[in-house]
Amino acid sequence: MNSPLRRALHRAIRSPQFIIGVALVTLFVLTAVLGPVLSPYSPTAQKMSLRLKPPSAAHVLGTDDFGRDVLSRILHGAMPSLQVSVLSVAGSLVIGVIIGLIAGYRGGWTDTLLMSLMDVLLAFPAVLLAIAILAVMGTALSNVILAIAIVNLPTFARLARGSTLATRELLYVEAARGLGVPPITIMWRHILPNIAAPLIVQTSLTIAAAILIEAALSYLGLGIQPPAPSWGNILSSTYGFIQTNPWPSVFAGAAIALAVLGFNLLGDGLRDALDPTTR
Amino acid sequence: MLALTLAACAPPPQAAPPATQPPAEEAKPAEPTAPAPGQPKPGGTLRVGTNQDAVGFDPHLTNATASYRILENIYSQLLRFKPNLEIEGDLAESYRAIDATTWEFKLRKGVKFHSGKPLTSADVKYSLERIKDPAVKSPRSSQLAPIIAIETPDDYTVIIKTEKPFAPLLAVLADRTIAIVNKDFVEANGGKMDNVADGTGPFKLKEWVPNTRTVLEKNPDYFIPGQPLLDEVIYQPIPDDTARSTAVRTGTVDFIEYAPPKDLELLRSDSNIVITGEGNNNVRFLAFNTTVKPFDNPKVRQAIAWAVDREAVLQAAVNGAGTPLYAGPFLPSFWPGLQEPVFTRDLEKAKQLLAEAGYPNGFTAKLKNTPTYSFLGNAGIAVQEQLKEIGINFEIESLEWSVFLKDYLGKNFEAVVSGYSGFADPHTPLDGTYVTGRQNNFMSYSNPKFDELVARGAQETDQAKRAEIYREAQRILLEDSPMVFLYAANEYEAMQSYVKGYVHYLNGSHVSFRQVWLDK
Amino acid sequence: MTRYIVHRLLVAIPVVFGVSLFTFGLVRWIPGDPILVMLGPDAIGADVEGIRRLYGLDRPWPVQYVEWLTNVLRGDLGQSIRTRMPVGQSILQRLPVTIELTILSLLLGLILGIPPAILAATHRGKATDAVVGIVSLLGISVPGFWLAILLMLLFSLHLRLLPSIGYVPLHENVAGNLRHLILPALGLALPLGATIMRFMRSSLLEVFGQDYIRTARAKGLTQTKTVMKHALRNALIPVVTVIGIQVGRLLGGAVIIEQIFALPGLGRLVFDGISTRDYPIVQGTVLTFTVIFILINLLVDVLYSVIDPRIRLTVR
Q1: Are B241 and B14 in contact (CB under 8 A)?
Q2: CA–CA gap between residue B428 and residue B2 (Å, rounded)
């Protein structure tokens, strides 16, 4: 890690929102990793006689419409939700940055072509993409990840391109180019570190958004498929009972909101710390 | 009628049985029908929240229940069902069997189409032949296949002949899908009636704005005196269940179909709301491809039939609003239905059958399931969990409806949770779904003895003897278990208490809109 | 300026083609058959091939694409396979709903986003900043459909203030139109407002840090005047960019809100089109989205130069 980042981190640690963000994200990750171990019941075990019960000693967060233990489902559902959000964003980050770097660095027709492609994706309804991917390739977790990754790809490409454009004209980059340093080296060594800050911020904000996208896909029947639990599908399959038994949807909604809040706070904290002009 | 299956519906009617037809003469009377004290008064607009938009308005071409529920108030048939599903004349004033294969229908005089043209026997002949015409590609053509001749000796007489005695004929003709259209109107429109209509029913089609509203207006010349009472009916599709029940509770609409089972409790506790509804002839099942291992073995299929907990499936699928099917495809209340439950859960028996079939430790197989309709998707999830107890591990392949349908119709599955509905006569499902080589026999099931019984049943005109034949056929069906029958869903409507005169039909029909009035 | 706009429109043409080709290929590539969906189980017995021919779906798809494109250039978007209504007409019927919903949520989003952002930025690090920050974060932390249902239950069921579902055209009844659209618009505006607030706040802070603002402060301008005169204008630029992207998302992303509030907008049209594999509907709607999206982004770029005359639009 280079020193501006390290300095930024030092600044960030003193910001309460960053700390709360880190705490919430840590809680999310811990839940995902330890959830299956801590879970009191199987997340798919059904007991119809116990359908839609409010919290009790045996079922701390109540039961859902299959009589399944909501706590166990939320604990088991954390990992798929974490995987979907983090892996999809990792995918769009890597590919988006490569596209953005090339477009911004090369300029001209390369830029126009790549950015037009990104505009195509941006203009394209996300739901159509999701249905297409899930219908063709099946509803496996990896395909939900792929769908969300494609949806978020243009955001990263645009961001990377914009920052690259600004960095390209910096003196030392021009100097390196003049010395005949290969473009790949220039991009990797000189440009990427300079555009890292906004990308890191965007990553945490997009992870937050990805959690919500998975929930939205679940509402349309396109997210992670039951009976396997995810926070999105727990919420979407129980929100209809909100007037008769609000518990499962309230707990699933709260889990989602806290995770999203965590990544957002983390992102905001990082942004403030990384961007010296806003100090 | 069988054709009006799930396929008809586009996306999500949650717990909504996709299409339904009359269950039974003896079926239980409708739960509470809207009480009608005071004097019916004419006027007003009924705002109806549906779960889906109509798909098109050609009564002979469309396949969607959402369309039929509107079309049945625009068109009339030769015959019609009463709320208790007895058959009575509609456009036919009287009808009688001349011999075992010939029926005579006398038409009402003075009936006019909305366009003003008087109805004659030529329109009836034209309508039935239009459905039968292969070029029109009506999904109803197979139902009228037994008809070999339609004669019109005069303007008000229609003679219908079948090749062999065909017991289900009257039930077929009373179905709302066999609408009588105006010959001149159809021809003037070049055979296309997707968004225009000219019927003889109580209401006229005024406007269809897809996915926004369908507006019907009063037909002042309707042939039943004093009906309809309403000036207008406005249908609005509200696909989300919670939104639909909220809409009727807040009075944004006056009436909703498919009142969501999950909200029944809430709706019942609301003093402004009246609920109608009860049982319905539809079947939700777990079907097997009988040509693939291990489902080619009847013992395996039977073992599953013993291992499934139908009451639990019913809870998960439709919040308990329905009837578990322990003994075949018919409700015990339907006249050919078997009375005694057969497959009440017995895990020991199931394990023993599995062992006899050579799978003492169970097996792993694939189950195709669709999340698009929770009343099917949730049933699949419940069944999967229950079968783990006898060592059968179903891997659920969860498919969006269009993909699911393609695989289902293409017999590309090992096991599948699906359903059908919409039958007035037992012949239709028994013949169409289980007889060797029939179009809806997706299981590739074949038993010559069963086929023979079904053929015999169609020719038997004595209902008691027919019922006995069909019971015999069902026992074979249960023995072979090409599918495991899970449950039949109920259907409910909810309305503001000032909506008077509505009567729940056991086939889910809304024809009683013609006598509905608003007490406000 | 004119030259710039013309150039941008010319560059946009390949994008429109790209999207249309992509859509065309994609809908045909995904499994599921519009004819089978339409016919249901009867498809087994029916003359599926004949019906397919009737809709011209039997030919190789490049041929179908060229034919479709030719018709589109003539202004004919084709006919829905499912309802057999003209696609152009279906889109035009729904366009007002989508446009009104988008504009209303944008307005609400700006109202919910900008004043709190100014408040937060001018009180940086104080309690006001923290409160505004947390409230706005909550706006983007809750899944949209859940928020929508909660809004509906609160405002129409419990408070009986607003109708729960449906749509009244603007030209029929302005008040009725607003009453029907306010809840769905609010459902979309809460997350949008939160996003705008966050961008606005940080870009305001950035501007505050710049030399000319410091100079202005040094000249003794009061806090309020400084904000209004210099900072706001400059801070708006990144916000406008974000709005450009967000509006694109609003157009197609309102599916769930439209579904819950039973609004006949384009989002539902395209979703139902995909679900039933109604190819002409999907193609026509996506094409419409693309054109609107491109126009909005062009508008955004033009807005830059209006907001800040120093930015000149040049053809690269």
Answers
A1: yes
A2: 6
pLDDT, mean over chain A: 88
Residues from chain C that touch A235, judged by Cβ atoms under 8 A, are 143, 146
Verdict on whether the full-model pTM lies above 0.80: yes
Examine the pLDDT at B21 and tell me if it is beyond 60: no
Contacts of C272 (CB under 8 A, 6+ apart): B10, B11, B211, C278, C281
Chain A nearest CA to C137, separation (Å): 7
Cα separation, B439 vs B419, whole angstroms: 15
- Residues B474-502 have pLDDT tens digits of 999 999 999 999 999 999 999 999 999 99
> Taking a C-beta distance cutoff of 8 angstroms, is the pair B16, B240 a contact?
no
Query: Which chain B residue shows the shortest CA-CA distance from C81?
Result: B55
pLDDT for B155 equals 96
Percentage of chain B modeled with pLDDT above 70: 93
Distance CA C98, CA C90 (A): 13
Q: Is B195 on the interface with C (CB under 8 A)?
A: yes
Of B4, B192, B211, the CB nearest to C268: B211
Residue B439: pLDDT over 80? no
| ipTM topping 0.90 | no
- The token pair at A67 is 């009589």
Whole-angstrom CA distances from A174 to A162, A164, A180, B448, C124 are 17, 13, 10, 85, 38
Instruction: Name the one residue in this structure whose structure tokens are 């802070």.
Output: C205
Chain-chain contact of A221 with B242 (C-beta, under 8 angstroms):
no
Interface check for B406 against chain C (CB to CB < 8 A): the answer is yes
Sign of CA dihedral C300, C306, C311, C316: positive
Beta strand B415-421 pairing with B102-107: unpaired
> Average pLDDT, stretch C7-33?
85
Mean pLDDT of B198-213: 93
